[in-house]
Amino acid sequence: ARGCTRCGGQGIVIQTRRIGPGFVQQIQTHCPVCGGKGKVSTGACRSCPSGQFEEAEKTLLIDIEKGMSDGEAVVFEGHTDEVPDHASGDVRFEVVSEPHPRFKRMGSDLRYTLHVSLSEALVGVNRQVRQLDGRLVPIQTDRVITPGEELVIEGEGMPARGGGEAGDLVVELWVDFPKNLTAEQKQKVLELHGEIPALDVTGDGTNEARCMEGKCSANSNAKEDL
Length: 226
Description:
Blueprint: E1 2-3, E2 12-20, E3 23-30, E4 39-40, E5 73-76, E6 91-94, E7 103-106, E8 109-117, H1 118-123, E9 125-130, E10 136-141, E11 150-153, E12 169-176, H2 183-193, E13 199-201, E14 207-212, E15 215-218
Parallel strand pairs: 8-12
Antiparallel strand pairs: 1-4, 2-3, 5-6, 7-8, 9-10, 11-12, 13-14, 14-15
């Protein structure tokens, strides 16, 4: 390519128009010869028979660092198409994580739902969870569990980018209650946990009525009519 002689390499030209007696208008426009580039092609040469630019394929290796979050980008500077007299732009790849069938990421923490039986909820849990890297992480507690209770395993979450402290593994315990019980099972539950209360408790803390053996009597604590 060589400099455009029409615009002197500026890419623009000044056009003069007469709009009336004694009035002249000057308009600045792109050079019609070089199209505003300031240079014109001299044709193919031995070094570049396809012209000043030619198509080429290039493989970019994307390195996803451990701990990267959704929305972070891997940037390759100066890898966009080349344009005469302009710097090439950057190629950006944005990280979007695919959903995992067992774990859910919450910042640097991992959440996991563990289904336990009613027996485990009452006497304790001794399980293992397979981590993303294949390790088995023990999940243990000997206390009574309430549905939705969470156990936190420190340092078993997502790794920190740059070598900081890893997040935690938060295990939500979901108690699977039996759908039905036999008469014998119900009797054993009553033997272990006591009889079912015979008093119907109201929302204000008073007892409305007491029914035992088919006989009901008014609550002695009920307020008298004024």
